[in-house]
Amino acid sequence: EEELLENLKKQLEKHNKITLSEKEFAQILNHLNKGNIFDRAKILRSKLDYQKDNGDIAYLELIQLEHWCQNQFQVTHQVKMEGSYKNRYDVTLLINGLPLVQIELKRRGLRLKEAFNQIIRYQKHSFWASNGLFQYVQLFVISNGVNTKYYANNYARDYKQTFTWADPDNKKINQISDFAEAFLEKCHLSKMICKYIVLAEKDKTLMVLRPYQYYAVEAIIDKVKNSNHNG
């Protein structure tokens, strides 16, 4: 986690084109470590204010929502966290240093639900631990190589709410390598997080669009921007 925090500081500095003192960064960490998953999804999409060492108030952006490609992307694996148990996560995708996508991989032949259940154990054991950075995860991806699904981070923990990605012709993309190329491409993934995750106020939960919903919205936007057909 020490390396994760050190990296977070560097990436936030790079993204915001600033330099943070240790005291200023401690304020940022304090602001980040508040609330539940839903609260943190809101924090992610807002700007954090902090007091600079000279007494001025400054604002820090956690993610660029409108120009979603203009974020800092990293992939890491075997991040270790200790809560009620020690856990080591398979693959974590960082955006501006924050862990926003968690990927759990199983061997071929194993049921996909085993990866789903593994993530539930992580949620119970260690995602909340220490500074709680893994409470910022927006999307989970589970795969056994030949079957791959994605879903939003929420407390529902219902396997029925896991989805298969598809191409515009609704051909399902199951292989992890094909899924990575289509869904985990950095600009597309960032767009999914910034534009296609819904923060449902009534149930205080995160919802991610399914592929046919995504393509429908994209088609409507294209019509509005590039035609006189009013969508």
What topology, given as strand order, has the largest sheet? Answer: 3-4-5-6-7
Q: Rounded to an integer, what's the Rg over CA atoms?
A: 18 Å
**Uncertain residue ranges:** none
How does the major sheet shape up?
Answer: 5 strands, mixed
Global mean pLDDT: 93
End-to-end CA span: 47 Å
Structural class: alpha+beta
Global shape: globular
The helix/strand series, from N terminus to C terminus, equals HHHEEEEEHEEHHEEH
Helix content: 25-40%
Output the number of helix runs.
Answer: 7
Descriptive overview:
The protein has 231 residues and is an alpha+beta fold. It has 7 helices and 9 strands. The strands form 3 sheets. A 5-stranded mixed sheet has the order 3-4-5-6-7. The chain is globular and about 55 Å long.
Name a few traits of the molecule.
two-stranded antiparallel ribbon, 35% helix, 231 residues, 5-stranded mixed sheet, alpha+beta
Layout of secondary structure:
Elements: H1 2-16, H2 22-32, H3 37-44, E1 47-51, E2 57-61, E3 73-82, E4 86-95, E5 98-105, H4 112-125, E6 139-143, E7 148-152, H5 176-182, H6 186-195, E8 197-200, E9 205-208, H7 211-226
Parallel strand pairs: 5-6
Antiparallel strand pairs: 1-2, 3-4, 4-5, 6-7, 8-9
Short description:
This protein has helices spanning about 1-15, 20-30, 35-45, 110-125, 175-180, 185-195, 210-225; strands spanning about 45-50, 55-60, 75-80, 85-95, 100-105, 140-145, 150, 195-200, 205-210. It is of the alpha+beta class and about 230 residues long.
